[in-house]
Write a structure and sequence with these properties.
Layout lengths: L21 H19 L3 H29 L3 H14 L1 H14 L6 E2 L3 E4 L5 E8 L5 E7 L9 E4 L3 E2 L3 E3 L4 E3 L4 E2 L2 E2 L5 H23 L2
Antiparallel strand pairs: 1-6, 2-5, 3-4, 7-8, 9-10
């Protein structure tokens, strides 16, 4: 008689075998998803929630990565100790660690630029009068120079997100938004720019660890 595979019980949760640092890598995927959520956010609450998920996921990666590594390989801790030294010495990495500590206490680590109104951006013509109202509406009497040109509009620019200085009152420490990483000036110091720089660092850490320890 031919062998047959077992039938799977209805509603069963099938076990799977995870590879080395798969659980840690899942946290980096969560961090990437959080960055994408920030880039697509339509309101501040969504942006701030995504930022919190990012810093939580990033530190979650390190905890899982370090715990599994030291349990699996006797030579892992000296190797990871060099990475930990970088985590402590680089302002960008320390900043995100502190942001995660702050998020654990329920505080949002984000500032915002002052909002402003853009009066008739790109408009070419004459504006006779303009009245704005507290409910977010406006009335404008304007005439383009020529027929067919765009009408005058008032555009609300609510302000871009800014990383704040994080204050650790317990240890009387302040962590300013990072300006440099790995000896270079950070070209994109927006929250998403900082996030992607950090994510690339940890992706490289995981890549190098797999090359070093995977059997």
């Amino acid at each position: 008689m031919a062998r047959k595979p077992f039938d799977l019980e209805k509603g069963a949760i099938r076990p799977i075998k995870r590879g080395l640092w798969t659980a840690a890598a899942e946290k980096l995927s969560e961090a990437e998803t959080a960055i994408l959520s920030m880039e697509k956010a339509e309101h501040r609450a969504g942006y701030e929630n995504a930022w919190t998920r990012f810093v939580d996921s990033l530190e979650g990666f390190w905890v899982r990565f370090y715990d599994e590594g030291k349990a699996q390989f006797s030579s892992f801790q000296p190797w990871a100790g060099k990475v930990e030294a970088v985590r402590k010495s680089e302002d960008l990495l320390q900043y995100l660690i502190q942001a995660r500590h702050q998020s654990q206490h329920g505080r949002i680590t984000m500032d915002w630029e002052q909002g402003k109104l853009l009066i008739a951006p790109g408009f070419n013509g004459h504006i006779k009068s303009l009245q704005t109202y507290a409910d977010g509406t406006y009335e404008i009497d304007a005439k383009p120079l020529h027929d067919g040109l765009p009408e005058a509009k008032v555009v609300h620019s609510p302000g871009k997100p800014l990383l704040p200085t994080i204050v650790n009152k317990k240890f009387n420490q302040a962590f300013a938004p990072p300006k440099r990483f790995d000896g270079q000036v950070i070209s994109n110091r927006s929250p998403t720019g900082i996030a992607r720089t950090a994510l690339d660092f940890y992706l490289d850490v995981l890549k190098r660890a797999l090359e070093q320890f995977q059997t």
